[in-house]
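Q: What would this chain look like folded?
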Amino acid sequence: MLDTTHFPKAKKYWLMGKLYPWSERPLHPMVHALHYGTSVFEGIRAYGTSSGPKIFRLPEHVERFFVSADVVKMKVPYTPEEVTAAIKQTVRENEMESCYIRPLFYYAYGNLGLIPKASPVELVIAAWEWGSYMGETAVNGIRVYLGPWRRTHHSQVDMRAKLGGAYVQSTISGLEARAIGADEALFLNIEGRIAEGPGENLFVVKNGVIRTNALSESILEGITRTSILEIARDLGIKTEIGPISTGDLTGADEAFFTGTAVEVIPIIQLIDGSDRNTPRRETVIGQGKPGPVSLRLRQAYLDIVRGKNPKYEKWLSPLD
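A: My prediction, written as C-alpha cells:
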C-alpha cells in the first residue's frame, strides 16, 4: 500500500478512461514526461456547499488546460467535454465534499528522445482532501523570500501555459525560501520588477486600491487572480493592473497572494535576497498583520466558493 499521508481520503484516480485504486501504479518509468517534464496540468478545487460539492470555475480551468496542451503541441485524445465529465466522475468516486483536483496531460511511454514522436498523450486525474496549502496559520500572514532567480520571461515561453517542466524553477525557489525560514518564495522578472510567487499571483494594497501586475510582467494569468479582480470591483474596491516594483511591495499597506491552492493569503513580511552581493534585508509589510482589504477579499472569496453568495453561482459546477 502506498502511504497516503499527503493525499487524505484519496481512493481512486482516473487514467485513460479507467478508475484505478489509489495504490496501483501502472505507469512505466520510461514515460517521456518523467524525464523531460513534458506535461501540463491544472489545479482545481471543489468545495462543499449547501447543495452538495461544486467545482470552482471548472470551464475556465478546462479551457486553460487545453491551451497549455496546445503550447506543448499535444494531440489530446479527449474533448473538453470529456475531460469535464472525467473530472466530475473522479470527484464523485472519491466521495469527498471538498477536495483538490489535479488533471494532467503528459507524453507517455513510446520513445525517449527529446521529441516525443512515438509517445502518445495520456490523461490522468486525481482528487484528494487538501486544506490550506501553507497550513492553517497562514491566514495570520506569511513571510516571503525574494530570491536571486528571475522568473522565466514571457519572451522565452508562453506564460499562459501551466507546463510541468517549468515548475522545477518554482520547486527550487520554494525550497530555498523554506531553508531560510520563509513561508514562500517570490520572483522578480528579467526587468527587475516583481513577477509572482512559485504558484501564486501577487496583489498589493495602497490607500485602499488593489493592484496586480500585467501578463507582460511574466506571470501566469491565474484564475483566482481574475476572480479577485472581479470580486473587488463588485465590492467597490478600486483595482489597477500594472507593474509592481520592490518598493511598491515594501511600501504597501497590505499585500497578499492568490491561487487555487493558497486561495487568498496575506503577506506580512518580505525577506529580500535578490542581490547575491548584499546581506538579506527584512521589511515588514504595512502593520505586520493581515489588513482589512485582504481579509475582506479573502472572506468574500471563501463565501463564494462555498456557495454562500448567489450572485456567483455561475462559477460553481455541480457534479451531476
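The first strand starts at residue 12 and ends at 15.
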